Amino acid sequence: MQTLMQELSEKRADVEEALSNACAHGAQFADIRLESSEGTSISLKDGMTKINSSNELGAGIRAFLDGAWGFAYTTQVNRNGLINCAERAVSLAKAVFTRAEKFSIDVPVFEATVKPTVQQLPPHVSIADKLNYVLRQEQEAKETDDRVNSTEIGYSDVVLRKIIANSEGTYIDETAVRSIARAMIFAKEGALRQSGYKARGDSKGFELFSDDGNIGRIAAAQAVSLLDAKPAPSGQFEAMLDPSLSGVFAHEAFGHAAEADAIISGTSILAGKLTQTIGSDAVTIVDDPSLKSYGYMAYDDEGIRTQRKVLMERGILQSYLTDIETGSRLGLGSNGSARVQRYDAPPIVRMSNTFFEPGDFTFEELLEGFSGIYFIGWQYGYTTPATGMLTFKSREAYIVEHGELRDHLRDAALSAMTLEVLHNISAIGKTLAFDPGTCGKGGQMTPNTTGGAYMRVSDVVVGGI
Amino acid sequence: MTNKAAERESTLLDACIRSLALIDTSIYQGEAFATYSNSISAELEKGHIKSSQSGFECGIGVRVFKDGSMGYAHASLERVEFAVEKAISAARAGSPDKDFKSLSPPERYPTVTGTWDRTIASLDVAAVVQLAIDVADASRIDKRVDIINSGASVGLWSGAIANTLGVEGTESGTQAALDVDVIAHERDSSGNGFEYAASRRFDLDIELVGRTAGEMSLSSLNPQPIQSGKMPVVFDPLAVGPVIAAATAVSADEVQRDRSFLTGKIGEQIAVNGFTLVDDGLISGGLETSPFDAEGVPSQRTVLIENGVLRSYLYDSYTANKESRMSTGDASRGDYRQPPSISPTNLLITRGGETDVIKDVRRGVYVRATGDRPNMSTGEFSGMVYAGYAIEDGERTHALKQTNIGINVLDLLKQIDGLSRDVTTYFGLTTPTIRVTNVSVASSG
Fold first, then answer.
1. Beta strand segments in A190-234, E
2. In terms of CA atoms, which chain A residue is nearest residue B192?
3. Cα(A185)–Cα(B204) distance, rounded to whole angstroms?
4. Which of B51, B74, B382 sits opposite A465 (nearest CB)?
């Protein structure tokens, strides 16, 4: 029996008929994402396993009319199901277009088939082998220290095949593979409890987990080391960020503000600032979906070939992230930044692999003469888009005096204004490191990578009271 | 509820029963959960319609246990055999868990009310677009409010659950939701205002939702730091959720794994006398109201904190069996794609007697919103005031700039010294405005 995924090879005629049907019913443009996916996820919590086998088959269709979009989705992916879905999308667009702001869109056309080049395709690896990897992480976490009192290891893989086609003639058949593992480890001593976290993810198959990189042990060591950490002081400090936190800054504080839908909706601090100097000349920030990392995609979810995008170069804002709509409205064209979580949601402007370009300094050079707070690892954080106010909570931190690490700190938060941080980045390290993560926007989650290097930032507010 | 919904419920229940028939109950326990959902939404960008969406989907999630090892798989209703087969092989691959005793046996379900609204179920896309337009118009209370993005959605769903012990349940529901996000400008300053509302009934106060966002954007203009120190902090109902309710409605799973700062505190006075927190899956029209939870356990009312004394954690059947007690009916799931996990139903904090909780505050902080949450292992909370105001001589004055607050939740609960008489509901939590004394506030910038 052929798999659901193989069935997609035979859908071209139905897909094209559904799209031309949409146009015959009045759409000026229509596109479709027809996808099939197969994945396994394993959760191991203190020895208790939960194994989730996931399979999806469905399609989402958009219809465009004079500045308005209608979107509908279906799990009925036969000829009738697709045609019916296309007609629903058109009728939704027709129901609203008279009240929309008029604009037209410009759609470049691509046709390609993209196959992954992984060594161990996840469906070809047994659940037992995957479970063994997870059990090994748990074992090593527990063996790290006898104060480790609770362990949680997650593993998940997916093979995702997508047909992305539109009424202008684009037809992309792209298959992607992703794997990720996460360790969340808790340690306890007396009444004190702390946790540590480490993740590893990439656009790879099971070969990603073949080396020694041990997330269980790393997370356990962090949890244990935090048991004697102190709460952070509060006030204004010089800061040093580790690559995880600087990567998150590139994504969370700067990257979201560079998304063109926020520029158009008037909710970004970067609106109207293209070609202006908005940061120190040490700062270059890139979003690159074509980089083979956890956020990799050869074509975006509107079928546009992806490319490396230099968003900020030596302090000058060079580019926004655009999709077909925002690229057309801003006169910039799409640079391949449209993504969906799944077929049941319409594409929106998103990042992929977002990172700082490395600088010239070694870690030791950055630390030399530094007094302030050195922040390590990302717990969570958020920004207010309209003002650029941000707050990030680190996993651990140190008070540094004249280049010497002093008190170890837990739950230290830093808050600042994005545009001020960009100006206040005084030096960036030479070694770039990436972290896999999941980004949420408009209710849609996507796999992303953030990348950064050690960097020094002056004048941030530290909380952790 | 309509005939159509009743028909859908029976189709879903049939699919569940069909899938369970494929499970060998001498080896496995199994559970099937099927849903149908249908939604319409519309989005406005800067006052113009941007898009409308509609979707319906149907799916089934099957959970199979073998010696406590859980396998889960989901599929469309046409492919239940596939889901069962995948779930069985996943259960066979996992490790046994001696703490797993059993899924829940059948029990009689309570009747719930206010969960289905005929009007919501009949709205079309034009009506939903109009809701988004109306809420945007209502937020335009001043010419400084110049950027308005809004959205409206309505949805209806039916669900069915069955397990190999004989549990069978069905339900249907409706929901309507509004959100509005506005920015006001005045010279170089910009202020952000937002508001959300959701209801099972078609009774959203569109005017109030819009006006609240508009007023908030104006009052957020020209933020200033305040002098740092220890002072009273007043938590708006929107801020009570992440800081106080999320920290005190604790999953028994976290407690049993000894990860929670509330471990071992049952029976202890952890909060002031006037503080009572209840988890209630049965209140009429509650967003999380349902006759049964995601495992088919009857919904119930559970007192979590009673006059300051910690009475209960939140249990599903697994954590309840571990302690040989009853589940509190707090198994929950987003959709059929995921197995259940523990999460509160509707939370209620008992109202107080104050008509104005800020009038006696000489110098303090009003927190409208924070994105931070306490460290659930230690109870420590430190967070940025995402939206908030200074309080001076009993009046809310200017918006706050780069201001952090910090306190351990265990101290916070004992330092509550005022609860408002009015209550507000956000995201399933109904709560008064809460005043806490002696909170660390650090501000600069």
1. 192-202, 230-231
2. A386
3. 43
4. B382
Q: State whether residue A13 sits within 8 Å of chain B by CB.
A: no
**Rounded CA gap, B408 and B274, in Å?**
19
**Best mutation target, A43, A51, A444, to test chain B (most B CBs within 10 A):** A51
Instruction: Determine the Cα–Cα distance for residues B130 and B370; give it in Å rounded to an integer.
Output: 31
Shortest CA distance from A128: residue in chain B: B93
Q: Does A442 touch chain B (CB under 8 A)?
A: no
Residue A433 CA to residue A452 CA, distance in Å, equals 6
Candidates A172, A184, A156; CA nearest to A294 is A156
Q: What is the pLDDT of residues B271-307, one digit of tens each?
A: 999 999 999 999 999 999 999 999 999 999 999 999 9
- The alpha carbon of residue B293 is apart from the nearest alpha carbon of chain A, in Å, by 20
Block means of pLDDT (10 residues each) for chain A, 465 residues, are 78 97 97 96 95 93 95 94 96 90 95 95 95 96 97 97 98 97 96 92 96 89 95 88 96 95 92 97 97 97 98 98 97 97 96 97 96 94 83 94 96 90 96 94 94 94 66
Phi and psi of B382, rounded to 5°? -140, 130
DSSP string over A344-367: TS--EE--SEEEEPP-SB-HHHHH
Does residue B98 register a pLDDT over 60? Answer: yes
**Contact criterion met (CB < 8 Å) for A135 and B440:** no
Instruction: Provide the residue count of chain B.
Output: 445
Is A51 near chain B, with CB under 8 Å?
yes
Task: State the nearest Cα–Cα gap between B421 and chain A, in angstroms.
Answer: 31
The candidate with the shortest Cα–Cα distance to A342, out of A162, A154, A82, is A162
**ipTM of the prediction greater than 0.95, yes or no:** no
Hey, how many other C-beta atoms are within 10 angstroms of the C-beta on A272? 9
Q: Which of B36, B49, B65, B260 to mutate to test the interface with A (most CBs of A within 10 A)?
A: B49
Q: Judge whether A389 and A428 are in contact, CB under 8 Å.
A: no
How much is the pTM? 0.93
Q: Which residues contact A183 (CB under 8 A, 6 or more apart)?
A: A137, A141, A151, A152, A153, A154, A196, A197, A198, A199, A215, A216, A218, A219, A220
CA Rg value for chain B: 24
CB contact under 8 A, A55 and B378: no
For B225, other C-beta atoms within 10 Å of its C-beta total 16
Residue numbers in B near A378 (CB within 8 A):
none
Separation in Å, CA of A433 to nearest CA in chain B: 26
From A96, A265, A386, residue closest to B190, measured CB to CB: A386
Between chains, do B76 and A57 touch, taking CB under 8 Å as contact? yes
Q: Check residue A426 and give its pLDDT.
A: 94
Measured between beta carbons, the chain B residues lying within 8 angstroms of A71 are 51-55
